[in-house]
Amino acid sequence: MSLFSSHKPADQAQWDNFGVDWVVHYQFEALEISKAVDEFESLLRDLDDAHLETQVRHGHGASLLVFIRVPSAHLGSLVYHSRVKDWLYGIIHELPVGDDDTIADADTPAESLRSVYHAVTWQKKLGGAHITPRHGRWKNVASAFPLHDQAANAELLRKWSRTILLTAEDLDSIRALFGEKVAFYFAFIHSYSLFLAFPAAWGVVCWWHWGSYSIPFAIGDCLWAIVFVEYWKIRETDLSLRWQVNGVGALKVTRTQYVWEKEVRDPITGEVVQVFSPYRQFLRQLLLVPFASIASLALGGLIVATFALEVFISEVYTGSLKGYLEFLPTVIFSLCLPSISGLLNSIATRLTQYENYRTQDQYDLAQTAKQFVTHFITAFLPTVLTAFVYVPFGARLVPHLNIPSFQGKAPADMPRDFSVDPGRLKQEVMYLSLTGQVLSFGEEVVLPYVKRVALEKWREYRTRQAAVQNRRRVSQGTSQVLFDDPDESAFLSRVRNEAEADEYNVHEDTLEMCVQFGYLTLFGSSWPLVALGFLVNNWLELRGDFFKLSLECQRPPPIRADSIGPSLQGLEVLSWLGTLSTAAIVYLYRDGMAEIRVSSLLLTLLLSEWAYLGMRFAVSTGLRKVLSRTLRREAAKRYAVRKGYLKATASEGSPPRGKLRVRFRGRVSVFTSATDPPSPQSDEVLREAMLHTERRFWSRRPNQVLEDGVRIIRALGQGGPKIEKEL
Amino acid sequence: MSLFSSHKPADQAQWDNFGVDWVVHYQFEALEISKAVDEFESLLRDLDDAHLETQVRHGHGASLLVFIRVPSAHLGSLVYHSRVKDWLYGIIHELPVGDDDTIADADTPAESLRSVYHAVTWQKKLGGAHITPRHGRWKNVASAFPLHDQAANAELLRKWSRTILLTAEDLDSIRALFGEKVAFYFAFIHSYSLFLAFPAAWGVVCWWHWGSYSIPFAIGDCLWAIVFVEYWKIRETDLSLRWQVNGVGALKVTRTQYVWEKEVRDPITGEVVQVFSPYRQFLRQLLLVPFASIASLALGGLIVATFALEVFISEVYTGSLKGYLEFLPTVIFSLCLPSISGLLNSIATRLTQYENYRTQDQYDLAQTAKQFVTHFITAFLPTVLTAFVYVPFGARLVPHLNIPSFQGKAPADMPRDFSVDPGRLKQEVMYLSLTGQVLSFGEEVVLPYVKRVALEKWREYRTRQAAVQNRRRVSQGTSQVLFDDPDESAFLSRVRNEAEADEYNVHEDTLEMCVQFGYLTLFGSSWPLVALGFLVNNWLELRGDFFKLSLECQRPPPIRADSIGPSLQGLEVLSWLGTLSTAAIVYLYRDGMAEIRVSSLLLTLLLSEWAYLGMRFAVSTGLRKVLSRTLRREAAKRYAVRKGYLKATASEGSPPRGKLRVRFRGRVSVFTSATDPPSPQSDEVLREAMLHTERRFWSRRPNQVLEDGVRIIRALGQGGPKIEKEL
């Protein structure tokens, strides 16, 4: 794909991040200048207290960009202590060698960025600066984020555009750049897409031989779903051990919003633990049940109403403007959906806050679980209604829709011999699998990209015009801070764009894949080619998601996780529902709706459910048996570590000490082995040039930084409305 | 209970084990004397090579008892190395302090006996004597077992006969005496019996208000089953952490019978691992499916035939001898059952051997899983037939049993208006819960006890007579080894009885409880008082099982386990089947068999299954949330250990070394704190006397021991048949 391969290595200099580890985006548009100056001063003081170096530049509009760099010795110490903490909590089995003054070398950029993230966001008593964007004291901090490694991103995109399969090293690279949470999503979509090959091929065979609603495809599809879910469970453990994040949830720090009932000194560890009764939390969690019921009713009612109206208009109504009126219900539904979803989401957020989770992880998981409910209803209910209510019972139900007063016609005008087209389910599934996926891809990736590029161009144009007009209106010093140094301008405009970009939400992408999986298991049997469509879509989706992540979103903080989260339970439920739904669809539709008997249908459901339970047990036992290699490898590793330790203490009487390591310019290679090593000569020249600009960028001392910031605030805050209009 | 409280503390001397750690029972009845002498010599040599002290006495008949004692320094070293191995495999988190020469003090008798067990049975390259009873070189070794701690056993029995509930300390005592595998069974029966209190009470209430087949009891019963199974899963983890055996299966040694495909040097640990393809093993395990099918068909066919014959005779046949003929089918069934069970068991054993498990643990589990299938069929199929075939459809089926040629009567003589008594199911359940349990208790505990006591008395009588007759027939030296020293005679007769006793099979007792649980969940709704019966029965069963274990069986080697094994899966399946069965029984029987509709029945089943799945999910989530304390405590403990280690290495530069400990006479107290300390004076005298006899018992040197043994073999083996008849 030529779109991705146009980057040349010479651009590398332009992609340099000037040694910036983190950026804080401070907005003071709605603030008084004195207040803004105060806040800015305390921001700088807090960062300085946490041993972080800072520089300041202006952002888009009335905002400041505070650039943060962690001195390399301090960063090395943070990395080392983070590893010791991992060991204390049993995440890793090998005690990192060293003592309190050890400076460790991060294995991946994500590891060092995670330590930077902790230094910026952790509470002060834990050694951080406690900068919490959009919360409490820092509600004017719009965001705090690391900068993208553009060269590595482009390299990955370029590589993937030429290959079909991702390798284990590709996943390791994502992990190295964005942390485990994001890497788990890409591992998931990759495994899932690979597995899709089976239903895609089997679907083509079955479609060729038996057409839709065939029993062989139904069985293959359900079995496939069970095998995939069980496989993924093992794969997840495998990855979490490979990436050394198994059980990482235990060491996450307490959220600022956490309310505890009492502080207890743990009798065993001696640490002070903040306790909130798990029993009360469980009671609060039970509120999910009424929430899910209300959400189901609200969304379900809306969907049923829309559906009924649509059917009424398209199949019964014969009046004027029929062509336009047919679209009316869908339009109304689409208009209502955002506000209803928003309402439900705000209720969900409140519920999750009320449930009072200790760590951000648990909070996110609980929130995602609630989004599941609403997502699943909006995604599946319309098709469920078509498959199990409208087509089988439509002929009996639709005549009841005839309300004379609404239509102003006599009932006699109604078509008495109304019959429902049994192919409607197939059409709906075809539409959703082909056009639906393409449209959603465009909406998700292409449209934002076009919008962003257009906005950038427009801004550039306006800035250039404003610059010409304003050059003489400000003092020398202010002009120096308001107008970019030519060396920095490309870098700064990139950072400004990243500051305005959206945050990347990995849960949403995972959810999208779960919905796709659900479509395949629930309704796949009605059109076996659907898996093929999904397979093609996912090739693009994987790359599109990475494109979105690396070019349209802020780089997410490299958070660790040991699973794709509650989506796993969603997949399990879907594979179970899928078996029931597939059995019912095949039973109902195979003979074209001829002679449906309730008892046979129920027996089909019961038998398919037993088959599901039996197969799931067999598959999980068998897979665990055959794929137990990783777990054994993990045990062997721990054994080896302990054995080595034992030997070391036996011979020396003390564990070996680590040697001091020095980080070079705070940069670590993503790829363990580069495929084409750059020519050392040109590389040296380039590095020299980059080092020079970087040194200049960080040249201003702390009080000068403070001065610069205050000057920008005064210039933009006071004259803000004026200049803002022009910028 | 006066049966147990008659023991006086003065008996303590009589219960002393003379410092014997292990006993090997060698039988040479069918052997030539020279061969027997050779085998005995190599037995002594192997034991001596493994640094074990030996003494020899004659047993019942043509057999030798080889008494083994592990020198206390050697035992302490074994215990220490076993702990280091635990640490290496990640079973415990704290590295035991010490070095290669450390002598550790066992925490419990079970821990030291486990080391003795390893010293006796492990392969020579692992440092053991490799004595494998009834296998290979040692097929003439009838058994090898530790001696009971009679005082502790009696103390526990006495304590339990006075209380209703067991405490955590009681379970710890069982663990200290018999090891974790046995302790898990007692923990299970205790938890289960406690939980039974709810259905017992609820059953009485429901029976009072609504009688049989009531919906409230059915719901309560099913919910209870789900809660119990989920609770037990957590409780099991809890106990395995408390007893430090979690994941203990990983460090078990390879069985002698294990066949491996290749030996591979593990790239990580550097240890040589014997590999057998898990894929091939899984394929072999799949043979369980045809085995289960064949077993079901064979047993099922037999049961159906018996059932049909019984029904035919009792309800249709009107000829002569009816009173006797009625019992004929059951008698035939009972006569056939042992041989069919035996055949199935021998097939099961072959299958399990073919499946080729590396450790004895895995082998036992696989064998037990197969016994499950046969046990469950024989236990539940008759009642299932009554509940779901005979009573609902009997009126339609029974007339077909009328075969004129068999009966020699005209079909017209048959009662045409045949109807089945709907109360039959209730009667069957009542019989099984009350008389059945009492009978099985008698069969299992009381009968063997009576038999054993009678046999002992008879043997004593014959021995005394033979002694009078034979005194002058043998030489002085032989007489010395053939007739017991008066000081030892009580001890030796006790050991001889233990040598002849059965091995204790903990899986069978567990299985019995699972069958009881199955009765309650499957058929409990037909007579709600059944749980009350089980509750009373289990009070006795728990004590009876301990009585059997401590007085009628050999003391089992203190094997470790971290679960009750495959029974857990059996419980899960039963709680699921129970929901379906209860729903069906309540639906069918509630209105006295009036208007049964297949579609309603199927709907009932489907809905109850969904309710089951939903409830199980909710219960397991909720319980795990509320009962997560232990897991957190475990994590906290590991944290504390690592923290402490970190501090120690930081300040000293090396982990603290352990001090040498000395074991006193190889005895460790079972109870951490005795309730009534014995008076020191009389205790001292007693101890002095015991020490004296013990010293005399162990006074003979190795070559004297060999001489003694050879002499016994010559005396009993040659004149064996003669003397044996008289002894």
From TrEMBL, chains A, B:
Keywords: Membrane, Transmembrane, Transmembrane helix. It is a multi-pass membrane protein. Its main location: membrane. Residues 19-141 form the Anoctamin alpha-beta plait domain. The keyword Membrane applies. The keyword Membrane applies. The chain crosses the membrane at residues 182-204, 210-232, 286-307, 327-351, 372-393. It comes from the Eukaryota. Pfam families: Anoctamin, Anoctamin_N. Residues 174-637 form the Anoctamin transmembrane domain. It is found in: Membrane. This is Calcium-activated chloride channel-domain-containing protein. It comes from Aspergillus lucknowensis.
